[in-house]
Structure to design on (439 residues):
């Protein structure tokens, strides 16, 4: 839809510019035609005035009419008739008179000889504000108009012409080509953006999966405690046996038991060391973080899940929310874990009923974030144990997400709690202090 709108706007803009340019060219051409017309008519009218001066009763009418077909006839005049130089005679004709002779001139014949006339919608020659001849339709509403006085002394007419745009002569093919070009450009640009976005998401996901694996190891440590049970039990039984043998004064067998116990203890120690090195010393990279940006990244990261579950994401983070000095990747992971649980809790909802909302308030001490959803909320047991490693109610769940989340929040010197909101779903409230780095 957006692509269509952009294409339409581009077509309108380029089409408008092309049409404007074409109309300007038409107007320019007609202006040139008008100037030619004006000059041609001036020349012809001056010829009348010359003929009038030179004509005598003996001149040959056939020869004159052959050269000037617009001169219909002439006649000698008496003194009283010669008062006005010009006398309209109806039907686009007029008498042009000198003291002795009058010429009857037909403007129809005069004008129709000029090819430029065809290019105008209307042409008229006015004398004393009344048209002597009018060619073409009504001109008052025409788009383009030209007026110019003729300089002939005896025939001081005004030439008026008007024109209308010739729509068939617009560059339609060019317009079509430009629309097609824009369609191709918009298509390729949008494809490019789509691919770039998909590439970004893929990179983010890869990065995130790596991080999740690393952090999950922290929680798996809890599972490792289970593994330590076995060597601890062994050590216990070696020591108990050694004590028994001591009581029975059978000292020669004791060193072997103690050696076995030492081997088990060393194994435990190296196991623990290995895990400690991997987990505990991951340094925090403190950075100034804009929570709105992190939230956008999280929703981008979960785009597929949000889209497939038709989940509405409601961002109520205030624009004035201050930045936080913290570890951005961890915050991202914390929000990710909470949001994915909220989406999973609503996966059986009908389309349009799932939502996840975030809002925040800032105090002097820090920022409080609240993430709520439209799911069923947590069961009584889940409310108690949600942050315990391996607690899950989902068949495919691991039960590590919330435990990891709590660990990360605590390592950032923050806090997390969960409650149900009547009529809605779960609500996770997180608090991150401003002075965490100094803590
Ligand atoms: N938004 C929520 N709505 C309902 N239950 C939730 C929500 N978040 C977490 N839970 C409960 O907490 C359990 C533990 O969550 P988590 O640690 O992410 O493990 P899991 O891998 O099972 O999702 C979930 O199985 C679920 O029962
Ligand atoms: Mg989870």
């Amino acid at each position: 839809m957006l692509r269509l709108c952009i294409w339409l706007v581009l077509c309108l803009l380029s089409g408008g510019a092309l049409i404007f340019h074409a109309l300007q060219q038409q107007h320019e051409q007609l202006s040139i035609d008008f100037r030619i017309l004006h000059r041609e008519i001036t020349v012809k009218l001056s010829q009348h005035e010359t003929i009038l001066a030179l004509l005598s009763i003996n001149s040959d009418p056939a020869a004159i009419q052959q050269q000037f077909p617009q001169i219909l006839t002439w006649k000698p005049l008496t003194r009283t008739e010669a008062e006005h130089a010009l006398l309209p005679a109806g039907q686009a004709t007029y008498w042009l008179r000198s003291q002795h002779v009058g010429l009857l001139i037909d403007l129809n014949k005069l004008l129709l000889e000029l090819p430029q006339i065809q290019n105008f919608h209307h042409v008229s020659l006015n004398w004393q504000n009344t048209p002597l001849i009018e060619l073409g339709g009504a001109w008052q509403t025409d788009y383009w108009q030209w007026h110019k006085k003729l300089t002939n002394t005896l025939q001081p007419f005004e030439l008026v012409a008007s024109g209308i745009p010739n729509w068939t002569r617009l560059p339609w093919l060019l317009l079509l080509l430009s629309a097609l070009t824009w369609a191709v450009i918009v298509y390729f640009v949008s494809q490019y953006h789509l691919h770039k976005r998909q590439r970004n998401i893929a990179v983010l996901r890869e990065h995130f999966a790596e991080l999740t694996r690393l952090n999950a190891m922290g929680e798996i440590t809890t599972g490792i405690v289970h593994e330590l049970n076995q060597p601890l039990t062994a050590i216990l039984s070696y020591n108990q046996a050694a004590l028994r043998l001591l009581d029975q004064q059978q000292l020669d067998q004791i060193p072997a038991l103690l050696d076995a116990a030492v081997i088990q203890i060393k194994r435990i120690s190296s196991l623990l060391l290995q895990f400690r090195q991997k987990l505990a010393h991951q340094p925090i990279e403190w950075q100034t973080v804009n929570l709105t940006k992190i939230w956008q990244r999280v929703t981008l990261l979960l785009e597929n899940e949000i889209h497939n579950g038709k989940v509405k994401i409601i961002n109520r983070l205030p624009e004035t929310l201050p930045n936080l000095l913290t570890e951005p990747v961890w915050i991202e992971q914390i929000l990710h874990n909470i949001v994915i649980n909220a989406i999973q809790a609503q996966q059986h909802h009908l389309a349009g009923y799932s939502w996840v909302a975030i809002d925040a308030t800032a105090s002097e001490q820090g920022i409080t974030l609240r993430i709520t959803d439209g799911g069923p909320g947590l069961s009584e047991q889940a409310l108690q144990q949600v942050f315990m490693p391996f607690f899950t109610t989902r068949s495919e769940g691991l039960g590590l997400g919330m435990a990891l989340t709590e660990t990360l929040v605590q390592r950032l010197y923050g806090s997390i709690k969960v409650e149900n909101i009547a009529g809605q779903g779960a609500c996770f409230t997180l608090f991150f202090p401003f002075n965490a780095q100094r803590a």
Observations:
- The chain is about 50% helix and 20% strand.
- The radius of gyration is 49 Å.
- Residues 337, 341-342, 345, 373, 375, 377-378, 382, 386, 391-394, 397-403, 425-426 surround adenosine-5'-diphosphate (ligand 1) (CB under 6 Å).
- The longest helix spans residues 172-247.
